[in-house]
Amino acid sequence: MSTKKSVWEIVMKANGVEEKISKLTGLSDKMAQKFTGAQDKVNKTMNGLKNLANEIPFVGKAFEFIKNPITIAAAALLGFFTLTVQSTKAASEFSNQFLELRQLNLDKTKEEIDSLNTLVLDTAYNVGIAPVQMSKGFYDLQSATGMYGKEAEGILTKIGGFSHATKANFDDLVNSVGKASGMFGLNSGNIDNYLGSMSKTVQMGITTYDELAQVQADYLGAAATAGQSFDEGNKMFAAMTKVSKSAQEGATLTKTAFQGIADPRVQEGLKKWGVDVFDAQGKMLGLDNITEDLATKLSGMSDRDFSNFMGDVGGPEGMQKYLSAIKNNAEDVLNTFDQFDN
C-alpha cells in the first residue's frame, strides 16, 4: 500500500498536480475565511434583529427566513420579479382598457390608433393620473361628446388638474363634464368656467367637491330644460343643500325644482298670482329674476294666502321646497345667489 502511495505521489509531483491542489486548497481556505467573516457580520446583524424581534411583536416573523447573504440576495431577486410582475400586470390592464377606446374608433387607421395610444399615455404621465384611468376618461368623454384626440386631451388635462387640487374623483368629474358638454356646449376653451362654477358651489353650499361631482349630472339636465345655465343650476343646488339632509337629497330637490319651473301647469299657477317666468319675447327668465319676482310677491303674504298660492302652483317636491324657502327666508336665498356671482 505504501509503495502504491509513493508511486502515486511521484506521479502527482511529476505532473504538478500536487502544487495546483495546494494552491487551490489555499485559495479555498482564504475564501472560507472571508465567507466566515461575512457570515460573522451577518450573524451579528441577525442577533440585533432577534433582539428587536423580541421587543416588537411580529418583527420576528419578518426576519425568520433571513439566515445568510444568499437568502438576502434571493429576497432582492424576488423583489425584482415582483416589480416586473406588477409592471406587466399594469401594462395588461392598460391594454385591456385601451381596447375599448380602440373599438370606439374602428374607423381610424392603425397609425391614428397608435398615435392615440401614445397621447393617452403622455396625458396620463403629464397629469399624474393612472394610464388605465386616463384611457377610460378618453373613452367616456368621446362616448358622451364625440371629442377625440387633442380636443379630448385639453379637457381631460384640466379635469385631471382640478381633480388633484380638489380631491374630487377623476372618473366622476369626467362623467359630469361629459353630460354637461351636450347640454351647455362645453369645450377645452370654456371648461374653466364650468369647473369654476363647481368651486363656487362648494363655497356657497353645504357639500364637498367629491359629492358635487357625483350628483351634479342629476340636476343640470333639468336646469337646461328650464332654460337655465350651469351657473343657475349650481346656484339652486347650493341653496337646496341648506334645506336638505345630504348632497344627494339636495340634488334631487334641485332637479325637481327645475322640473317644476319648466312645467306648464306650474307656470300657469304662478301666472295666476302675477308671476311670469317668461320675458316679453317668450324667453325663460334667469333664476335670479324669477326668484326676485317670487320674493316680492310672497313677502308679507299671509299663511292663508300662501297656502292657497301653493295649492294653485302645485309642482313636485323640489318646487315646493324652493317656494317655501323664498317665503320663509327670501333674503338668505337671494344672498346665496348674489355671493355665488361675486
Can you give a write-up of this model?
- The protein has about 350 residues and is mainly alpha-helical.
- Helices cover about 80% and strands about 0% of the residues.
- It is built from 16 helices and no strands.
- The radius of gyration is 37 Å and the shape is elongated.
- The chain starts with a helix and ends with a helix.
- About 30% of the residues are buried.
Question: How is the topology of this model organized?
Answer:
Blueprint: H1 2-14, H2 17-55, H3 59-62, H4 69-103, H5 110-127, H6 131-145, H7 150-166, H8 170-184, H9 191-204, H10 209-225, H11 230-240, H12 247-261, H13 264-272, H14 287-298, H15 303-313, H16 317-341
Please give a quick description of this structure.
By secondary structure, the chain is mainly α.
Feature tags:
single chain, mainly alpha, 342 residues, elongated
Order of helices and strands: HHHHHHHHHHHHHHHH
Mean pLDDT: 83
Radius of gyration: 37 Å
Give the oligomer, counting copies of the same chain as homo and different chains as hetero. Answer: single chain
Percent of sequence in beta strands: under 5%
Tell me how many strands there are: 0
Shape: elongated
Largest sheet entry? none
What structural category do the secondary elements indicate?
A: mainly alpha
Count of helix runs? 16
Termini separation: 112 Å
Sequence stretches where pLDDT stays below 50 over 5 or more residues? 2-15, 55-67
Instruction: State the helical fraction.
Output: over 70%
